[in-house]
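Example 9 (inverse folding). The structure is encoded as follows.
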């Protein structure tokens, strides 16, 4: 039984269990983003992203600066 909502990553459409109500346990919390990286990603996407996409976008941002 799933306790949290299953969503699709906005970028790659992988299905992930969203734990927004328990953010410290959410898979996206594993990616530590600084303020500039968060701003960069939020300009591209509005919804939730999986940890793999967050890491990829973090690297994309770091390579662009």
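The amino acid assigned to each position is listed next.
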């Amino acid at each position: 039984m799933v306790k949290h909502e299953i969503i699709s990553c906005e970028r790659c459409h992988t299905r992930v269990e969203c734990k927004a109500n328990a953010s410290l346990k959410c898979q996206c919390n594993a990616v530590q983003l600084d303020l500039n990286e968060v701003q960069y990603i939020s300009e591209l996407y509005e919804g939730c992203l999986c940890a793999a996409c967050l890491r990829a976008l973090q690297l994309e941002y770091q390579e662009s600066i």
